[in-house]
Amino acid sequence: MNGHNSPTMPLDHWTHGISPVGLPLPTNDSLLTMSVHDLTRKLQRKNHSKIVLLVADGLGGLPLEPGGKTELETAKTPNLDALAARGTLGLSIPVLPGITPGSGPGHLGLFGYDPLEYQIGRGVLEALGIDFDLGPNDVAIRGNFCTLDDAGNISDRRAGRIGNDIAAPLCEKLDQIKIPGVEVFVRHVKEYRLVVVFRGEGLGGEVDDTDPQATGVPPLDPVARDDASSKTVEIAKQFLAQAREVLKDDQPANFLTLRGIAKRPPIPTFEEVYGTRPAAIAVYPMYRGLARLVGMDIIGPSTTLDDQMDWLRKSWNDYDFFFIHFKYTDSTGEDGNFDAKVKRTEEVDGCIPSILALDPTVVIVTGDHSTPSKMKSHSWHPVPTMIAADMCRYDGSTAFGEKECRAGGLGQFEAKYLMPMALAHAGRLEKFGA
Q1: How does pLDDT run across 102-132, given as a tens digit for each residue?
Q2: Whether the predicted pLDDT of 31 surpasses 90
């Protein structure tokens, strides 16, 4: 036997660029380093197609008992079921198998940005969502008003979910805090949520949250994850000390926790990498912030799904790609309310005729992650996903639910590949290679 073909040839020769016959494997450096975005830039094709991405936040669920139905399977969704018969179904994995995503990574994946490569702090998203113009010297922080008991422990992480009428004046009080050497901005977002921005030279954005994610314990101290963020930690400690004094007599919001402490990172725009003009129609600031981060125009304001459908109609001729976000399939799941999530899912079904009346080329329905009401939290479970278009390879589906998606033609795939599939179904990608 020729020694080059010996079965004892080390397997790791393949991984070191050596063939089983001992010769170097052919390489193409441009292919080895090419990302999906490099490829979509290269293959962009302009046409008059329209793509709608409808994201029902936290769409995926679990049955309450073995053999039962999930929230999506329980809901009466005749419009989604009819659309499934015209499309292809599958399950998307937001980050990696077994990894539970936050809303930021979940949406970035849907937009085609690898969430492991583009890690965006929640504070940045909240700030962009309220149109705060973040500069290169800014560190943005998502704040939650909370309630401290007499021992200084957190008794309510969201201060009883106080309304805008209570929270907005408290933000105005906090906005008066002064810290030498930096500017401090405090802006109300929605209900118990706020944004804090520190602006100054030499501030790093690698700082741990102060929210312990539990009650009956005190808030955590901010801790720097690198040397450049030590200055930010000192400023955060001064801010929190002053905030405790400012809020000490305000019940139930007598303190706040800091989350998602970060600087705005560089990120390529949606139009640059996909060649489409994108618009976002979202109610909640964070999701508007996600969309603005990748260069989408924000359409609105909206407070209801009906409002969103009105804005979709009004802006239909001005854009090629529409991201529509619906929050309440997530919040009802986090509340552990199975029946309420079912009803909210049925609301999503009700908007499908309004979308189809505009004759889109591609309709995608999915979620950014699963939020089973059984778990009262985000989960790692793959997310039901549907692509409906004239160019679909129909898979025989007759309903939209987890069971049907498991057997669907899309299979299980990483969410970051959804956008190339959307573009392909819309005829917006040229052939790759000769």
Answers
A1: 999 999 999 999 999 998 888 998 999 898 9
A2: no
Which structure tokens are listed for 9?
């040839």
Domains and their CATH numbers in the chain: 51-118+267-425 (3.40.720.10), 124-262 (no CATH)
Handedness of CA 345, 349, 351, 355 (dihedral sign): positive
Residue 11 has pLDDT above 60, yes or no: no
Classify residue 234 by burial, with Cβ atoms within 10 Å: 0-12, 13-18, 19+. middle
Q: Are residues 322 and 51 in contact, defined by beta-carbon separation less than 8 angstroms? A: yes
Q: Is the peptide bond before 136 cis (omega within 30 degrees of 0)?
A: no
Please give the mean pLDDT across all residues of the chain.
92
Residue 77 to residue 358: CA distance in whole angstroms: 20
DSSP H stretches of helix in 296-417: 305-315, 328-334, 338-356, 402-406
SS3 assignment for 54-100: EEECCEECCCCCCCCCCHHHHCCCHHHHHHHCCEEEEEEECCCCCCC
- Amino acid in position 163: G
**Nearest Cα residue to 283 out of 306, 261, 260:** 306
